[in-house]
Amino acid sequence: MKNRQKVFDKISLLIDAMNQEVLGYLGIKFEKREAYAVDYVSELLTMYKETTGLDETSFVSGRGRRKSIRQKQYEELHEYLERLKSYAYHIETCGEERNSYSKTDHDATFMRLKRDYMGNDQLLPAYNLQAAICDEYIAVIDVKPYASDMECFVPLMEKFNRTYGHYPKYPVADAGYGSYNNYLYCEEHGMEKYMKFTMYKKETTDKKYHENPYRAAKS
To answer: Residues 84, 36: one domain?
Structure first.
């Protein structure tokens, strides 16, 4: 997360200021890190308060009331700690495999759905429903919070294998499923690669694309 990295950078700058302006006179130095865990920043906050003898009941606020350097630094570090707690909660809720979730349904992911009757795109919390069809029968069905079909292919095939004890020999799917990782997965599990890659149509039928001198050339 870019915002979290910005907070890490700000904490490092604040620790520099703390070490130079306050803690250095006491013979103490806080350690800087590339990334800051919530527990570590919470520990720094407690140590800073105890080392400098800060009393929160004596903090000043409001117009015309000048805050001390120690109060400013303590409050700034406390603000960063609260942000890190918020980021940790969002990351735990969202997981590593998606980049958004709905506040009303944490398992759902925001996806751009088909246009409504007014012709507007709808970005709404949703699930990606997957079905494997064999001889016009639904063999397996799966529901995932991934917006991309590419991410749904492997879980669906694994569910097929758990259900029937083998992988399908010819998994046919459209270009939305074609990716290097999925082709490699098929190769490793004895499945034929019957999925077009995302640029298949353009590379096979688009004359203008082939005549474009600025397109990336294959090695």
So the answer is: yes
